Amino acid sequence: MRVVKDPEIRKNEILDAAEELFETQGFDGTSTNQILEKVGIARGTLYYHFKSKEDIMDGLIQRYNTRIMDKAKKAAGDKKQPVFQRILQVILALNVNQDGVREHLHKPQNALMHQKIQKMLISSVTPILAELAEEGISQKVMENPYPYETMEMVLVYASAAFDDDDTVAMTEEERLVRAHAMVFNIERLFAVKDEQLSKLLMQIFTK
């Protein structure tokens, strides 16, 4: 008997199957037939949701980006927290490993997906951080005539410096040093006084 499911449920089943296959076999090593067999659907059902294997990859990227963005927006929108706290929490949200996705993105066979995700995150999160920077500037706790461009540079650095790429293996101590270096430079880029970001960073990492 043919099972009819809610389109969103079926779409996520396809994405889940593709994600598992991409993890074990890589994007190029996975065929649409293998995805069909894993989900147990006809080709027409697959093409109803996705036009191609590349479209499935883009769907995975969008799903991952949405999860990260939800965390970033939640952190940015918490008006009970000072602007410096929200800036740090948004940046830290980028390093969240959603369902192990980040682990297999760094495999050579998934390099294109990794590159696309990094590009999407930078373009999506920069406006959030820029808005927070503008808030800090309006509160006169920060100074910088180029908040958007500066936050974009910070994100590009953060995405590279804290990426779990096997080619740049880091100990936790080295990761912490990089975090301090990043915060040190943010404070100077935005003329932050009293090392407020550094103090918040220490609170987060010593909890």
Structure overview:
With 207 residues, the chain is an all-alpha fold. It has two domains: 1-51, Homeodomain-like (Arc Repressor Mutant, subunit A, Orthogonal Bundle); 54-205, Orthogonal Bundle (Tetracycline Repressor, domain 2). Helix content is 70%, strand content 0%. It has ten helices and no strands. The longest helix is centred in the middle third of the chain and has 28 residues, at 111-138. The model is unreliable at 97-102 (pLDDT under 50).
From the structure above, extract its key features.
single chain, mainly alpha, Arc Repressor Mutant, subunit A, Tetracycline Repressor, domain 2, 0% strand
Approximate shape? elongated
Low-confidence stretches are 97-102
Number of domains: 2
The sequence of SSEs as H and E is HHHHHHHHHH
Question: Under the CATH scheme, which class of the largest domain?
Answer: Mainly Alpha
Largest beta-sheet details: none
CATH-defined fold name of the largest domain:
Tetracycline Repressor, domain 2
Strand content: under 5%
Give the name of the CATH architecture of the largest domain: Orthogonal Bundle
Radius of gyration: 20 Å
| Proportion of residues in helical segments | over 70%
Helix vs. strand class? mainly alpha
Distance between the termini: 54 Å
The counted number of beta strands is 0
For this structure, what is the CATH homologous superfamily of the largest domain?
Tetracycline Repressor, domain 2
The number of helical segments is 10
